[in-house]
Each structure stands twice: as structure tokens, then as C-alpha cells.
């Protein structure tokens, strides 16, 4: 199936010489949830701004649902909804007027039934006649989402959607994103909240210093790069790891009451059986074993550090 969004060689270099984006190639499938993960200043917002026509690229091509985003700007932009990081609304307008105006900007005819349902989905319906300045920060964030969805776009960009919002709103937004995907909307979100990508995304792209380091299905990424940890609860606490255990990657945790072993779960040999035998041979007793997977955060940190080390 042809991707709904395709970027080929997209780069951005400012007049000062600063390279904000380095020749990005990326295809987004229709109906997927894609998370662009990276630290502040990595190039996430620059990439979104280019696709949405806010920033002009220095190089490359962008195709949105078959439309060239430069030559056929209006058709391409009409298929995109953008929820920016910053609150940008007329403080003295009512919620419903703000959302109606956004819909009209894209030439859509008035559809009160659709907008009413949208406001209900975002828990804004009771505030539809309130002025923007009367709303809490979380409510204002919901208004931005309503504005972005007002013209029924096929692609929704969420730029750092959880920045500055409480846990309750974050969870509500996650639920809304899944409902939108069920209706066929393609979701692209940028975030540095690892849990957000882990909770929602089908695929994850990692960007750092303007370079797209990798794009993988979330499950495959965690399977390929993820490590596992095994905590061994010791019968008696230890102060140092004995030299006889030097063949394994071990550390002491919980004030010496636990021995932690980090291993590659995909390796042909994990080293666990030989480690447990060695513990018995040297007389170290244990009363419990517990294993856990690494999180997407662990993978992200390791990946960025590895790339930075290679570039040094």
C-alpha cells in the first residue's frame, strides 16, 4: 500500500549554517501511530513544521496522500491537522467559535453535529460557550486538539502532546488517539516522554541532532535491542562482587541484598545456568530470582549514547 506520508532527503540548514535536519527519508503507513522520539532540540519540531508548511525545507521532497507538499500545498495541508506545543488561540473567543473558525479556514462547510461530538470526545462540550481565557491549561490543550481535528484531517500531528499537562489529561489523550486510529486517522507524535511512545506507537523513530537514527516497529526494536535483568535475592548481603564472578555482568543492589545480572535475552547462551552453578560452587546462597525486560527508555538512552560515542 502506498504510504500516506513520504519524505525523501528532507533537510533543513538555516542561514547561520546550523543544520537542523539531515536528509531524512521516512514513509508513514495509512492508519498507523508513529512516534518520533528524541531529546529537546533533536529536530522533531523542525520536521513537523516542514511537513505542515510552517518551515521551508532546504532539500528533499514531501508527499502527503499523493500530493506534493510544495507544489500542491493546499491539497496537502488540508489533509493534515497539527496540535502544536505552544498555545496559540484568541483568548477572547469562545471554544465553539474558535473551532468553527478553524474548520472554515480549510473551506469545510459548517457541521455542528460533527463539532459537538468532537467537543464531547474531548470533554469540552460543557465549556463550548466559555472564552478561551477562562479555561485551565489542560482545557486549552484540549481546544488545540479540537482545532486540529475540526476539518476532519487524515493525518494528525501531535507535537509534544503531554508537555505541561497532568496525568489525567495525558491518559485521556491516549484514549482519543486510539479512537482516532480506529477511525482511520494516521497519528504522528513527537515526544521525549518514553512512556508515551511505549503506550501508543506502532513504530518508533529515534532522532538526535537532526539525524533520524533508526525506524523500527516498537516490538521489534525492544526485542532486538532490549536487554533483560535478573535480580538474585541473596541469603546474606555482600559488600563486593567476588572475583570468581567476573565472567558475568554483575552489580550489587539494595545495599548488597541483591545481585543484578544484565544479559542479552536474544543471545544463544544467556549465561544464567552457569552463573547459578558458580554461585553454588563458591557458597553464595540465594532465596529468590526475578527477571525484567528493559524499557524503551533504556533502549533509547543506549542507542543515543552509542551513536554519540561513535561520532566522537
Write the SSE topology:
Blueprint: E1 5-13, E2 19-28, E3 33-37, H1 44-51, E4 59-64, E5 67-68, H2 73-78, E6 80-83, H3 95-105, H4 112-121, H5 137-149, E7 155-159, H6 167-182, E8 186-191, H7 194-200, E9 203-208, E10 211-217, H8 218-225, E11 228-234, E12 250-253, E13 258-263, H9 272-281, E14 286-293, H10 296-311
Parallel strand pairs: 3-8, 3-9, 6-7, 7-8
Antiparallel strand pairs: 1-2, 1-4, 4-5, 9-10, 11-13, 11-14, 12-13
Protein name: ABC-2 type transport system ATP-binding protein
InterPro entries: AAA+_ATPase, ABC_transporter-like_ATP-bd, ABC_transporter-like_CS, ABC_transporter_ATP-binding, P-loop_NTPase
Pfam family, one: ABC_tran
Structure, explained:
This is ABC-2 type transport system ATP-binding protein. Keywords: ATP-binding, Nucleotide-binding, Transport. InterPro entries: AAA+_ATPase, ABC_transporter-like_ATP-bd, ABC_transporter-like_CS, ABC_transporter_ATP-binding, P-loop_NTPase. The chain is of the alpha/beta class. It folds into two domains: 5-223, Rossmann fold (3-Layer(aba) Sandwich), CATH 3.40.50; 227-293, Alpha-Beta Plaits (2-Layer Sandwich), CATH 3.30.70.100. The chain has helices spanning 44-51, 73-78, 95-105, 112-121, 137-149, 167-182, 194-200, 218-225, 272-281, 296-311; strands at 5-13, 19-28, 33-37, 59-64, 67-68, 80-83, 155-159, 186-191, 203-208, 211-217, 228-234, 250-253, 258-263, 286-293. The strands form three sheets. It has a six-stranded mixed β-sheet, sandwiched between helices. A four-stranded antiparallel β-sheet has the order 2-1-4-5. A four-stranded antiparallel β-sheet has the order 12-13-11-14, with no helix packed on it. Helix 3 (95-105) packs parallel to helix 5 (137-149). The radius of gyration is 24 Å and the shape is elongated. It starts with a strand and ends with a helix. The model has no long low-confidence stretch (mean pLDDT 86).
